[in-house]
Amino acid sequence: MRIFLTGATGYIGSAIVDPSRRAGLQVTALVRDPAQAERVSLRGARPIIGELSKPAAYAPAAEECEVIVHTAYERSKRGPEVDRRAIEALLGAAGRRVDAGLRASVIYTSGVWVLGSTEGPAAEDAPLNPTPLVAWRPEHEALVGDLSRGGRIRTAIVRPGLVYGGSRGIISELLKEARNGLVRVVGDGRNHWPCVYDRDLADLYVRLAMHPDASGVFHANDEADERVGDIVESLSRHVAAHLDVRHMPLEEARAKLGPYADALALDQIIRGPRARAIGWAPSLHSVAGNVARLLEEFRAAKEAAA
User: Fold this and answer.
1) What is the rounded distance in angstroms from the CA atom of residue 270 to the CA atom of residue 118?
2) How many CB atoms lie within 10 A of CB 225?
3) Are 8 and 41 in contact (CB under 8 A)?
4) How far, rounded to the nearest angstrom, does the alpha carbon of residue 296 sit from its chain's CA centroid?
5) Are 6 and 69 in contact (CB under 8 A)?
6) Which residues, including other chains, have CB under 8 Å from residue 186's CB and lie 6 or more apart?
7) pTM of the predicted protein model
8) What is the per-residue pLDDT for 242?
9) pLDDT score recorded for residue 303
10) Average pLDDT over residues 263-278
């Protein structure tokens, strides 16, 4: 089976490459430049150089693949516009396969922030109440379904929690701050963050790629229901220096971080019964319980990138 992967050098996409290859999948990866092309090529993927905002460069390669996995996101003011253009192009490529009598699947990456703060545990059928930072995402989730040719294209939407592992992402920023002796927390730290280990998240994508009937929304998190304060307290037990924890009131955080502050302040308890129904089970079940491991991964990833 062939998969076309956007964001192959990003945080989520880069985690997907190796387990896909181990599962016997042939990976075609969209990258931005020759240096990234060389990196993914060394990992056994076929690189396609292009920009997410210019579908003409990659749509033909996507059309060659049975499964399209979209994890890329351009972090700029035009990010939502580029994402919409990519959705239309990738679903268009899948549609041309369907018109030719071939199977086609598209897996789109959203996130749990579309749910806003939750009232108790929220599964995949929970109503959407997106925090302002991702107010555009529900429309894009709906667009994936609208462009599925009446269900002839199998579509799946993955909503990861906060991803941890390696040296990227929000949790890694906390690790970095802890190593430097100062951690900033938005609010009082009693809010829950749904989190997921990067390798476990990658396993869900591979399962979805290989499952012929899995469609709809899939939540991905370890269901540890950890409070931010619990994670920070665990960090304090694993760093050499005394850890100074600074709690920022939400209004102050908004002045410094904009709508990102509201996202960090969300209180979410997330459940993913649909992901578990296809056999997915995370191997790590806690950030706080794996701080020593995560600190070592962070150190190793930083050294490898140096």
Assistant:
1) 8
2) 17
3) no
4) 22
5) yes
6) 247, 248, 250, 253, 257, 261, 264, 265
7) 0.96
8) 83
9) 87
10) 98
Which overall architecture, per CATH, does domain 2-166+195-223+269-283 show?
A: 3-Layer(aba) Sandwich (3.40)
Domain ranges of the chain: 2-166+195-223+269-283
Q: How far is CA 26 from the centre of its chain?
A: 21
Tokens of 82: 């580029």
Q: Which has the closest alpha carbon to 219: 122, 86, 94?
A: 122
- pLDDT higher than 80, residue 78: yes
- Mean pLDDT, rounded, for 2-31: 97
What is the tens place of the pLDDT at every residue in 131-177? 999 999 999 999 999 999 999 999 999 999 999 999 999 999 999 99
Q: What is the mean pLDDT of residues 270-297?
A: 96
SS3 track for the chain: CEEEEECCCCHHHHHHHHHHHHCCCEEEEEECCHHHHHHHHHCCCEEEECCCCCHHHCHHHHHCCCEEEECCCCCCCCHHHHHHHHHHHHHHHHHHHHHCCCCCEEEEECCHHHHCCCCCCECCCCCCCCCHHHCCHHHHHHHHHHCCCCCCCEEEEEEECEEECCCCCHHHHHHHHHHHCEEEEECCCCCEECEEEHHHHHHHHHHHHHCCCCCEEEEECCCCCEEHHHHHHHHHCCCCCCCEEEEECHHHHHHHHCCHHHHHCCCCCECCHHHHHCCCCCCCCCCHHHHHHHHHHHHHHHHHHC
Q: pLDDT at residue 117 above 90?
A: yes
CB atoms within 10 A of CB 130: 19
Residue with the larger pLDDT of the pair 242 and 40: 40
Q: How far apart are alpha carbons 51 and 45 in whole angstroms?
A: 18
Q: What is the mean pLDDT of residues 197-213?
A: 97
